[in-house]
Amino acid sequence: MRSIYTRITPTPTNLRSLTISGFLVRPSTSTSISLQHRRHYTTTKMSTPYDQALSRLSSLQSNSLITSLFDSLPSDSQKDINSLAIPEMKAWMSRAGVTPELISQSGLKCVHVAGTKGKGSVSAYIASIIQQYFPEEKVGLYTSPHLVSVRERIMLGGKEVDREVFARYVELVWKELTETAKKLDGGRLTEEECEGPGTKPFYFRYLTIVAMKMFLGEGVKNAVIECGIGGEYDSTNVLEEGSVTAAVVTQLGIDHVGMLGDTVEKIAWHKSGIFKRGIKGFTLREGKEEGVRRVLRSRAEERGLEELVEVEVEEGWEGVEGGKMEGGPFVKGNMTLAVYAAREHLRKCGVEFEGKFGREGEWGMGDLPEEFLRGLREARLRGRSEVVRDREVEGLEWCVDGAHTEDSLAGVGEWFAGRVKEEEGLRVLVFNQQDRDPSLLLKALLGGVRKVFGEGKRVFTHAVFTRNEEKPAVEGEKRNLTVQRKAEETMKEFDSETETKVYSDVGSAVEQVRLLAAEAKKEGKSCKVLATGSFHLLGAVLIEIDNVAY
After folding, report:
1. Are the C-beta atoms of 445 and 498 separated by less than 8 Å?
2. Distance between CA atoms of 364 and 346, rounded to whole angstroms?
3. Partner of 508 for a Cys bridge, out of 48, 133, 328, 503, CB 3.0 to 4.6 A?
4. Tens digits of per-residue pLDDT, 83-93?
5. How far apart are CA 486 and CA 436, in angstroms?
6. What are the Cα distances from residue 454, in Å, to 411, 446, 457, 459, 527?
């Protein structure tokens, strides 16, 4: 077996060979671990196995650097790399002692979910519904990214996996990869090199292996697996036909252009790569252009789907109230898609439904069994239409959502506006998007709010634009605020009366919001905040406002 890792430091001249050999770039003076992964993980003294696990993960190559390296390559090189993605992932899994064949033999049955918008929420809904039918078992859920704790990515029985279990499987995978490296590459690598991160896959691949290893080790029989990026070449797309009961493609939009393409049709091709022979695929008909639908249908035929079900949201169905995940205009579509996929999975697992719901082609969303309704209400995923009460300022309400595309932010704007429309008080926006044009995204968000408020109405009384770092810069450190200033200008153009502030860290931004809320409370006014634009921003915000465990 050829080596599937490298210890080369990235430079313009070796970038292509580096990425083709597995996207494995070791941290150096020219490459750094992403803030999201490093934030709480680096420690000088390993006090617990969990600390050790976090430290190990922090040494792996981050996803953000992998995607940026990919984006910098010419298109021909990108095609070469894509063609190696699944074979390499299977090789890594083999080195860790968990293969697609082993997963299939274990009896684990999975719903596979891809998409641009709503895939995390849909995945959570599906897992929660399935859990209602197997209350004595632990249904697995694998999603990304995480906001505060990496354990958010792997859930068992509706709860984040506990620290002890998480640490055990991170260490188990690390040791197995190390031992395999010693056997296969010990002749050219030192023992220290075999034991280090240089013989491990990058962050998302590693966690995917950990999740699969954990699901098998903990006896999980039902799981929902969300793709990371795309579908065709995603690390999760190693599942064999016998392991997948249903494939879901949620709403699509332009995202990760370098890896997936610059049109929705190209992106649809990638997302539909999770379609498997002999199963049903589910997608929402609403919101998809005819060109996208043609791509999905063509891929369904090419992949041998039993049927591509284009789900329509029923006009008369009002959704399920009282859920842990609130939502804007997309929530009914997400719930509907989840119901169809969960029903198919349960049917494949031998569950028989009574009455109209059990008859194909006759049931509607008004016929849902109590288990489905309860599953939709109890589903939970951090940072998706989440409402959090501030731990320090009584009555201060934070509405947080990780939306980061134009369509998603427009929906978030409608959701927030629906919560505050009739209230007199402060409406505060906390926003950042460090990697994309903040003006376009902010305009989409504000347009969504105005859709509810009406033209000419004031949207936000205050707006705070911040970078994603939690704490203020240290002495001598300079932080670029160009993005934040641009967003501030856009807000002023939209509504010159909105009071704006720019900060270099989230802690200072949250402190400003709390001061505003405290003053408003003295005057008998409420204060509601919308924090959105980036999952990285939300992670830092939640650390400041909520009692969270890493």
Report:
1. no
2. 17
3. 503
4. 889 999 999 99
5. 12
6. 15, 11, 6, 9, 21
User: CB of 465 within 8 A of CB of 484?
Assistant: yes
Say how far apart CA 167 and CA 54 lie, in whole Å.
8
Whole-prediction pTM? 0.88
% of the chain surpassing 90 pLDDT:
71
Q: Give the CATH H-level superfamily of domain 107-137+221-379.
A: Mur-like, catalytic domain (3.40.1190.10)
The angle at the Cα of 494, spanning 445 to 453, to the nearest 5 degrees, equals 60
How far is Cα 125 from Cα 380, in angstroms, rounded to an integer?
8
Instruction: Consult the annotation and say whether 191 binds a ligand.
Output: no
Residue 97 has a pLDDT of: 96
Contacts of residue 242, defined as CB under 8 A and 6 or more positions apart, other chains included, come to 104
CB 256 within 8 A of CB 67: yes
> Residue 499 CB: number of other CB atoms within 10 A?
13
pLDDT the model gives residue 280: 98
384 annotated to a ligand binding site: yes
Instruction: Write out pLDDT tens, residues 281-314.
Output: 999 998 778 999 999 999 999 999 999 999 999 9
E strand or H helix that includes residue 511? helix 506-522
- Determine the residue type at 523: E
What is the SS3 string spanning 94-162?
A: HHHCCCHHHHHHHCCEEEEEECCECHHHHHHHHHHHHHHHCCCCCCEEECCCCCCCHHHHEEECCEECC
Q: Residue 25 has what pLDDT? A: 34
Could you tell me if 125 and 335 are in contact, meaning their C-beta atoms sit under 8 angstroms apart?
Answer: yes
| Backbone angles phi and psi of 157, in degrees to 5 | 65, 35
Gap between the Cα atoms of 305 and 323, Å rounded? 33
Interatomic CA distance for residues 106 and 173, integer angstroms: 18
- Name the residue ranges covered by the structural domains of the chain: 1-84+166-217, 107-137+221-379, 386-545
Contact 517, 527 (CB under 8 A): yes
Average confidence (pLDDT) over 350-368: 94
| pLDDT band at residue 258 under the 50/70/90 scheme | low
Arch. (CATH architecture) of 386-545:
Alpha-Beta Complex (3.90)
Residue 402 · residue 396 · CB < 8 Å:
no
